Predict the structure.
Amino acid sequence: MFTPEALREELAKPKQIVVTTHHKPDGDALGSSLAMYHWLKAKGHAVNVIVPSDFPTFLDWMPGRQDVIIYTEARESSDARIAAADMIWCLDFNGLPRIHAMADSVRAASALKIMIDHHLDPEGFDDYRHWDSGAAATAQLVYDFIVNAMDDHNGITPEIATCLYTGIMTDTGSFRFQTTTSLVHLIAADLIAQGAKNWEIHEHVYNSYTEARLKFLGFCLENRLQVLHEYRTALFSVSREDLTRYNITTGDTEGLVNYALAISGIKLAALIIDRTDQVKLSLRSVGDFPCNEVCRDHFNGGGHRNAAGGNSNEPLQTVVKKFKSLLPEYKTRLIQ
């Protein structure tokens, strides 16, 4: 493993750098990546942000978004950039399967691999690691990396502050999740002081619904929400026909699971969606209920204690039935 001092020495010389993040990037993934993009460019490096897939349109406004390369739309040139890179910065993921089709190219690259992340159980592909599973967001760790590990608080420009604030805001549920510590608020305050316009960021992310997305939300609340009071659990199950009916695009289902968790007395919420290629699960919980264990042990996934995801190749209703069948096993932890 490289030390911060050794990494500083490497960064003192111009490099060819690729920055990447996980499949279907969210606000933390893209915010962290673009913040690092701006910081590295300011240091004189040639930087490409290459993401494995498309991402929500409500993030299109972010500084630097116009320079983001979507791997599936430019595979050949992206592979060439990855192969030629001196460094590959891996943000908001700690296992190469999370970058899907990019995984083989990144694994085969001779580049120095730097990981900044807050998810459990790192795979170990990295040469330098700035990792803390207790952090609220990877954007928090990017801030810590720049300000403390690299001793460059002056390097936090308004563009970087905007990207990092977006990442922290979205991964903390607008600063309401348990991971929102006093330190997180202090960092957010500093980012505002460095130029992040918090009110504009909230407006871009949360007040940019399409009419179809709002109608889809109403449809799901009326027709796809099930509440299992015996297990203090609520879930949405969404079919591919539902997605087609409302012309749902990447990011339109984000946050839907939180409506199930908002019901008084509910401790566990699930969103189960048929994405055609796979059925995807998103779990959220309050208190000490371990979403990550459920996803890891039963749905090929993982994540954090209160927020995790998984997938299955079985039909939607089979996955829903399986999820419900697990609840008696966890009943004591759900009702306590």
The chain has two domains: 4-206, 211-335. The mean pLDDT is 96.
